[in-house]
Amino acid sequence: MAVTTLGRELVKQALPAKYKSFADEPLTADRQKKLFTALAKEDPDAYIDILQNMNAIGERVVSTYGKDTTITLDDLDAGA
């Protein structure tokens, strides 16, 4: 059984299939640069939408949890 985090799953949902592997490891500044560069070059039509989706994930998590952005399955609304 693979171990993952909610954040990784949210990022995977925002990415096209061929980029989902980027969410398997922490998205350091270097990995983000590689991801967004690849998206811009290989999928320019989807780039803006993906970037906006990723930004929305960050905004939602920070506005909900503040600087304590560690969330667990107990934090999720099962009905959503």
In summary, what is this structure?
The protein has helices spanning 6-14, 29-42, 44-65.
The portion of residues assigned to helices is 55-70%
Domain count: 1
What's the tally of helices?
3
Number of strands: 0
| Strand residues, percent | under 5%
Element order: H for helix, E for strand: HHH
Largest sheet: none
The low-confidence parts are: none
Mean pLDDT: 82
Output the radius of gyration.
13 Å
* Net shape: globular
**What distance lies between the first and last C-alpha atoms, to the nearest angstrom?**
25 Å
Structural class: mainly alpha
Describe the 3D structure.
This protein has 80 residues and is mainly alpha-helical. It has one domain (6-72). 56% of the residues lie in helices and 0% in strands. The chain has three helices and no strands. The longest helix is centred in the C-terminal third of the chain and has 22 residues, at 44-65.
Which short descriptors sum up this protein?
mainly alpha
List the helices and strands and how they pair.
Blueprint: H1 6-14, H2 29-42, H3 44-65
